[in-house]
Write a structure and sequence with these properties.
- The complex is a heterodimer of chains A (199) and B (110).
- Helix content of chain A is 20%, strand content 33%.
- Chain A is an alpha+beta fold and 199 residues long.
- Chain A folds into 2 domains: 85 residues, 2-Layer Sandwich (Gyrase A, domain 2), CATH 3.30.1360.120; 81 residues, Heterotetrameric sarcosine oxidase (Alpha-Beta Plaits), CATH 3.30.70.1520.
- The longest helix of chain A is centred in the middle third of the chain and has 12 residues.
- Chain A is globular and about 55 Å long.
- Chain B has one domain: Folate-binding superfamily (Folate-binding fold).
- Helix content of chain B is 17%, strand content 28%.
- Chain B has 110 residues and is of the alpha+beta class.
- Chain B has 2 helices and 6 strands.
- In chain B, strand 4 and strand 5 form a beta hairpin.
- Chain B starts with a strand and ends in an 11-residue tail after the last helix.
- The chains are: A alpha+beta (199), B alpha+beta (110).
- Bound molecules: zinc ion.
- Chain A: It holds the Pfam family SoxG.
- Chain A: InterPro entries: SoxG, TrmE/GcvT-like.
- Chain A: It comes from Sulfitobacter brevis.
Chain lengths: 199, 110
């Protein structure tokens, strides 16, 4: 059995206004098909252990989850070591119906940005309205981070989980680090009550 | 800045999350067509100052194609609609006619 190696060896940086770290490897399976079909919804929900999210949503618990990627695509997340067997389980559950499942874990890099100012860091890099009243935990967004495609969701009020293509992992880490560098707080979003931030 | 709403997934974002796909509702002329028709299909495009129908792709998002009706001068977006159609929806046309009384829809896009 070969040892999985993430793009940046799970490097991290906590010197800025939010902590940035690579948190791979994560098992990721692209599941494409008719998202309204009960055979697909049942298979995905049962195997991922969470409900199929509404459009533009993500349901996750610990290291499992399902993210809504497009009108005909879901991303099923699981522990890295289980990705292979999860694909087999999905294919078996789908049976003779049409849907495709592919293990894409090694093609991606996963990051976490956390802290009271995490929203600001993300807002500097993507064309997404990250106002706390608009973008909330449980929502999922495919977009860009500076110049590369990426997707993210919030696992709680101050934590973003991000994934991007593995080939641009260094770029994404660097650009997140620059957006989070110390002294760069903008103060655009109101902090939640009781929160204080290292600006 | 141009702000578009993807008809496929409903996300509203500024234009850098999308990619423009050129004029909408072209009629394809393929093998066997006259040279003039083929040339027109390949190269001849409208470039109106005002109301225009375009194809766009939500390239950094859901990846789907959709249509947009907008004003090329003011960047006002009248609406987005499905890619799976040959013509803009009637209610969108009516809304544009309302806002731009001197605009008439070009017969060729009908
Ligand atoms: Zn979309």
């Amino acid at each position: 059995m070969s040892e999985p190696v993430t793009a940046l060896n799970n490097t991290s940086d906590a010197t800025g206004i939010a902590a940035v770290s690579e948190i791979g490897p994560v098992g990721m399976i692209t599941l494409r098909g008719d998202l309204n079909a009960s055979y697909l919804r049942k298979a995905a929900a049962q195997i991922a252990g969470v409900d199929v999210p509404a459009p533009l949503g993500c349901n996750s618990s610990d290291n499992r989850g399902i993210a809504w990627m497009s009108p005909d695509e879901l991303l099923v997340m699981c522990p890295y070591a289980e990705a292979g067997e999860t694909v087999e389980k999905l294919e078996k559950a789908i049976g003779s119906n049409f849907a495709t499942a592919a293990n894409v874990s090694d093609g991606r890099a996963v990051f976490r940005v956390s802290g009271p100012l995490a929203r600001e860091v993300m807002a500097k890099l993507s064309p997404v309205d990250l106002d706390p009243a608009i973008f909330k935990p449980g929502m999922f967004r495919r977009t860009r981070l500076a110049q590369v495609p990426a997707a993210f969701w919030m696992t709680d009020d101050e934590t973003f989980q991000i994934f991007c293509f593995r080939s641009v992992a260094q770029y994404v880490f660097d650009v997140l680090k620059v957006a989070a560098q110390s002294g760069s707080a903008v103060g655009h979003f109101p902090l939640a009550e009781g929160q204080s931030a290292n600006t | 800045m141009l702000v578009l709403t993807c008809h496929a997934c409903g996300v509203t974002a500024e234009e850098t999350e999308f990619h423009a796909g050129g004029e909408a509702h072209l009629k394809r002329f393929g093998p066997g067509s006259s040279e003039t028709d083929f040339e027109g299909y390949l190269f001849m495009r409208d470039n109106p100052k005002g109301v225009h129908f375009e194809r766009w792709r939500h390239v950094y998002g859901c990846g789907k194609w959709f249509h947009v009706a907008r004003d090329t001068m003011t960047l006002e977006v009248f609406g987005s609609y499905s890619a799976q159609t040959y013509t803009p929806p009637d209610d969108l046309i009516a809304q544009i006619e309302d806002k731009r009384p001197d605009w008439t829809r070009k017969a060729a896009t009908a």
